[in-house]
Each structure stands twice: as structure tokens, then as C-alpha cells.
Write a structure and sequence with these properties.
The structure holds 2 protein chains of 2 kinds. Chain A is mainly β. Chain A has strands spanning about 5, 10-15, 20-25, 30-40, 45-50, 55-60, 65-75, 75-80, 90-95, 105, 110-114. In chain A, the strands form 2 sheets. In chain A, strands 2, 4, 5, 6, 9, 10 and 11 form a 7-stranded mixed beta sheet that branches. In chain B, strand 9 (about 85-90) and strand 10 (about 95-100) form a beta hairpin. Chain B has strands at about 5, 10-15, 20, 25, 30-40, 45-50, 60, 70-75, 85-90, 95-100, 105-109. Classes of the chains: A mainly beta, B mainly beta. Chains A and B meet through strand 4, strand 5, strand 9 and strand 10 of A and strand 5, strand 6, strand 9 and strand 10 of B.
């Protein structure tokens, strides 16, 4: 099946710094990617829909200035957590959508903000 | 609003027993329903989708629009089925996907 790579898998940063997470579709082009946040023992919360060449669509309650999403190519979307704070610590997961509608997930990135 | 509900956080069954993981949804249009599975230390992956009407690893799921349900079933559970199962919903253009809270299936020997 298709492969989606997410990097880094783990990142620890100081409060106030910014962190960038990359999501790449390795063997297919993805015009649409999704970013999720997962809290411990909870479901995946859709944060935003990333569309290649256009602005991301954010879900209600998600701060677009806090979570910057860029989808500059058909195989790469990035999520930048700006001015990170401890409450931003979480597991972030991306997925890329094939034309068939099937989602392929990255392995996730665990962010810890000290 | 779109919503996917999985009422059971944990489901434990013995090997060989039937298993049913419940999923109910609310959606204003015609939904596409999926089941995703996450085995230990692995990423989420598609198990099955309702439009394909396939049986994957012995699992089936029928979309019941009257009851707005998409329950996942398997007649004889195996230990290797132990995993987290997520029910997901999308519109017909697949522009958004919403996930349920997940059910952890534990198949005991």
C-alpha cells in the first residue's frame, strides 16, 4: 500500500519556540492531507485539512495562527506549532488521501513542550 | 453536526467467540463509512469501507442507514485481532474525515 512518512517522530522543545512537523506521501500524490491531534486514550481530533496550493481549512476551535499548515507540493504538508506551550504537548498525526478516498497515515509525531 | 460514536472503549472476548464493535453516526448527507485499525506500535490503517462490501481478515460491516450504524463484526475472533479499532465517516467527496473515539479489542486465549 501507499506510504506516508512523518518526521520527526519525537520532538522536545522549550516553551516559546516553534516546531515544524513534516508529512510526506512517498509514492503517490496527495492533493489533500489532514492533520489530527490525539490526546491520551482519546480519539483523533481533526485539526485542519491541508490542500495543495491553497490555504488550509481549520476546524472550529483550532487557532490558525498557532498551528500553521503549508502544503506547497503534492507530496509534502507541514505543520508548524508556533510559540509552543506545554498545553500543546500531544501526539500529532497526519494522513494523506488518495483519489479513491482511502487515507494513509503517518506514524505520528509526539511533541513535548517543556 | 457530524459525529461518530463508538460506545465501547474496551471489548474483551475469548478466542473463537463472535465479536461486534459498535459504531453509530450522525451526518446530514450521504456518508462514506470506514473502519480503521491500529495494531500495537503500528500506524492506523484501513480495514474496510462500506462501499467495497468486502470481508477483510474475516471482518464485515454493514451500513444500516435506518439505524445510522456501521457495526464491525467477526464470527470467530483471533488473538491477532487484538488492536484499536476506529470507525470513521466522510462525505462523498472525501473532503473531511471524522473518527470515533475508538474501541480497544482484546482477544484472550
Amino acid at each position: 500500500g501507499a506510504v506516508v512518512s512523518q518526521h520527526p517522530s519525537r520532538v522536545i522543545c522549550k516553551s516559546g519556540t516553534s516546531v515544524k512537523i513534516e508529512c510526506r506521501s512517498l509514492d503517490f500524490q496527495a492533493t489533500t492531507m489532514f492533520w489530527y491531534r490525539q490526546f491520551p486514550k482519546q480519539s483523533l481530533m481533526l485539526m485542519a485539512t491541508s490542500n495543495e496550493g491553497s490555504k488550509a481549512t481549520y476546524e472550529q476551535g483550532v487557532e490558525k495562527d498557532k498551528f500553521l499548515i503549508n502544503h506547497a507540493s503534492l507530496t509534502l504538508s507541514t505543520l508548524t506549532v508556533t510559540s509552543a506551550h506545554p498545553e500543546d504537548s500531544s501526539f500529532y498525526i497526519c494522513s494523506a488521501r488518495q483519489n479513491t478516498g482511502e487515507l494513509f497515515f503517518g506514524e505520528g509525531s509526539r511533541l513535548t513542550v517543556l | 453536526a457530524q459525529r461518530v460514536t463508538q460506545p465501547e472503549k474496551l471489548l474483551s472476548v475469548f478466542k473463537g467467540a463472535p465479536v461486534e464493535l459498535k459504531c453509530n453516526y450522525s451526518y446530514s448527507g450521504s456518508p462514506e463509512l470506514f473502519w480503521y485499525v491500529q495494531y500495537s506500535r503500528q500506524r492506523l490503517q484501513l480495514l474496510l469501507r462500506h462501499i467495497s462490501r468486502e470481508s477483510i481478515k474475516g471482518f464485515t460491516a454493514d451500513l444500516n442507514k435506518g439505524e445510522t450504524s456501521f457495526h464491525l463484526k467477526k464470527p470467530f475472533a483471533q488473538e491477532e485481532d487484538s488492536a484499536m479499532y476506529y470507525c470513521a465517516l466522510s462525505g462523498q467527496n472525501f473532503n473531511k474525515f471524522y473518527f470515533g473515539s475508538g474501541t480497544k479489542l482484546n482477544v484472550k486465549p
